[in-house]
Prior knowledge:
By secondary structure, the protein is an alpha+beta fold. The protein has helices spanning 2-19, 24-41, 47-50; strands at residues 66-70, 73-77, 84-88.
Amino acid sequence: MIKIALERIYTLRDLAVKVATSDPQHSRRYIRIAEAIGRRMDITLPRGIKRSYCKKCKLPYGENTRIRLRRKTLFVHCGNCGNIRRIPYK
């Protein structure tokens, strides 16, 4: 069951990235469905998927995203809503 859920989550993420520029509403919907599948199956979304979209506006990061490295922290500025995401790294 978990394997099927992960396959569907990856498929939804790919669809969200594909239609992000042409139809942002569908893209948001795909990401919300992927999160719901993860919650329902009680699995954590893989790190690659979790970090590929903005937590506030639920759109995949794209061309207008700014990424900066400062003091062992990765700053990701969403180009759509302006949200800043801080991710520590070593």
